Amino acid sequence: MANRLQQSNSPYLRQHADNPVDWQEWGDEAFAQARERDVPILLSVGYAACHWCHVMAHETFEDPDLAVQMNAGFVCVKVDREERPDIDSIYMAATVAMTGQGGWPMTCFLTPDGDPFYCGTYFPPRSRNGQPGFAELLDAVYGTWTTRRDEVEVAGSKITEHLRATAQTLPDGPQLDVQLLADATAAVLADEDRAHAGFGRAPKFPPSALLEGLLRSTEYTSDDTALDAATRTLDAMARGGIYDQLAGGFARYAVDEQWVVPHFEKMLYDNALLLRAYAHHARLAGDALSLRVTAETVAFLDDYLWTGRGYASSLDADTEGVEGLTYVWRPDELVEILGDDAGWAAELFAVTDAGTFEQGSSTLQLPRDPDDAARYESVRARLSAARAQRPQPDRDDKVVTGWNGFAITALAEAGATLDRPEWTDRAREIATGLLDVHLVDGDLHRSSLDGVVGTPLGALEDYAALTTALITLHSVTGEQRWRTAGLDILDRAIEVFADTEETGAWFDAYPGGLLLRPRDPVDGATPAGASLIAEALVASTAVADVDAQQRYADLADATLARAGIILAKAPRSAGHWLTVAQAYVAGPVQVAVAQAPDSDGDMAAQLRQRVPGGVLVIAGDQDSGPLLTDRGPVPTGGRLRDAAYVCRGRVCDLPVTTVDAARV
Question: In terms of residue numbers, what domain contains 117?
Fold first, then answer.
């Protein structure tokens, strides 16, 4: 018999709809029941693509005896961390405080007031290898609740006090200037794994925002050291098993130092952020590998994640309960499919008898470029066709606002700078879908499913990422609708998320309904909401009317002033702060291209290909936007010609009529 999750807007929650556990979604009703029954809340948090979430679901939540125990002693609540990042953030902080580590599935026991008093991650159904089993844990927690209630409530209140104390704004730090950025970049480079590329040790996650920051560092300083490090990491990931050598797209992380064995789930946010970095690298370095990966990543997004209304959230780590089943190969399988080409392909893709994964299977790598391009394409096509006949991983069709915002920005930038107008068209299509479905009465919602908007409101991440996406789309297309929508969303974000007591500080979630309003200024798998809103403010300053322009500029100044402490103390956790700060400290710079009546758009197109990351090129008729007010084309040789005005902050250079003369 299905529980209450079958009507959920979250595919992850629907995965648990047939559990014998009486799951409920997070809400007032669940907490009211806990108070009425005088039992704790059992909170389980995960996401659809999570391998260990599936393991615990099959081992534990499908066990009828454990379900009886859970239902009798607790009110059981399921949360999709992707749909409710605010809830996840609060209780993950509690889990880390109690255990020293976090992860998913996350399991927390709460008082009926929401105070966490015991937290952990994965638990096996019965005790195993020294780890307590879930059955024993349930007994212990319920026993403590019924016999030592005072201790439980004191422990829960102390944890909540700790969470509130740590959810504070950033302390004052060093001034944000060229030297601080140089020091932060140097500190990041000192952590590079020069043997295998990337930063730090295994497991290795794609450092997408950090790579973009390093690329901008080179552009704004003319020092190729950062570019060299970024190139090594981009190349290593593109040639490793973390990258799908047949269909494109990156897995969530590699379990080893050499990028060989991935954790096979594929997330939209990783691929959208990496798309931006690879496209930028392809343009900056003229790199053929990055150009190919850029095109293949777009193809992956379109072929595997496109829902018709936006991009889906993820592909599962497992296929039919087996991790990597769709993706790995044995030498005998290559022989069966490729015949005489099997040996050549095995060497090219590093498929060995011993295997690089489990049970003699290998992930596909591409340590070197093929010596026969036609043969390579033939092999890829045949392997792809064979793989298409295998069982495929499930897809989480939830369309998340912020992650699709990342995709819009990447597609619009890549389309404009790499001359792929169809990518810009896709960015338009996503933006239209988000504004039509996710924007309801002026408020952004976090996600939708099958065109139906979900109840949870958007996070700061959603507002900020979509604002930047729309301003980027406006700058690339010249279409005013994106500017208007972006500035409206930014104004609502300021109204909802800005800390009115401390200028430049931001909350990550709407007020009300939780133990506290979470805020985390540290960049993680996705950039922090605060660093994203800093980018949105800097971009919007370039296109806003005069009155709003000053307000956005002041907020950008105050927000970025708080970045100094992160860049100084933890630069590897400040990749997006570094990205935004590079452009901000350099000006910020914008270029207005006043176009002549017969303009072919070539000057603006060339400038977009040449300017550093973070520089907006706004092209159009004189007085068609704030940056073009009183700025027009220049008469030369008896006719009007396109003129570029390079502006740093509020000061603009004299107009120039050639791309080479525009000093950015």
Answer: 11-166
What CATH number is given to the structural domain containing 18? 3.40.30.10
> Is 529 within the bounds of a domain?
no
Domains of the chain: total: 3
Residue 274: pLDDT band with limits 50, 70, 90: very high
Inside any domain, residue 611: yes
Instruction: Please report whether residue 542 resides in a domain.
Output: no
DSSP structure class, residue 586:
T
Determine whether 366 is exposed, middle or buried from the number of CB atoms within 10 Å of its CB (0-12, 13-18, 19+): middle
Q: Enter the DSSP assignment of 196.
A: T
Backbone angles phi, psi at 545, to 5 degrees: -65, 165
HSE, side-chain direction, 13 A CA sphere, residue 602 = 8
Of the three residues 364, 390, 416, the one that is the final residue of a domain is 390
b/e burial code for range 508-537 (CB count within 10 A of at least 16 → b): bbbeeebbbbbbbbebeebbbbbbbbbbbb
CA distance 129 to 627: 65
Alpha-carbon gap, residue 431 to 408, rounded angstroms: 7
Residue 51: half-sphere exposure toward Cβ, Cα within 13 Å: 15
- List, for residues 468-509, the tens digit of each pLDDT value: 999 999 999 999 999 999 999 999 999 999 999 999 999 999
Question: Are residues 595 and 557 in contact, defined by beta-carbon separation less than 8 angstroms?
Answer: no
Residue 87 falls inside a structural domain: yes
pLDDT-derived band at 2, boundaries 50, 70, 90: low
What token pair was written down for 652? 């603009």
Indicate the residue among 166, 184, 201 that finishes a domain.
166
- Verdict on whether the full-model pTM lies above 0.85: yes
What was the pLDDT predicted at 199? 95
- Measure the CA angle with vertex 26, ends 21 and 27; round to 5°: 125
pLDDT digits (tens, 9 = 90+) for 76-92: 999 999 999 999 999 99
Which H or E element spans position 594? strand 589-594
- Output the furthest CA–CA distance in the chain (Å, rounded): 93
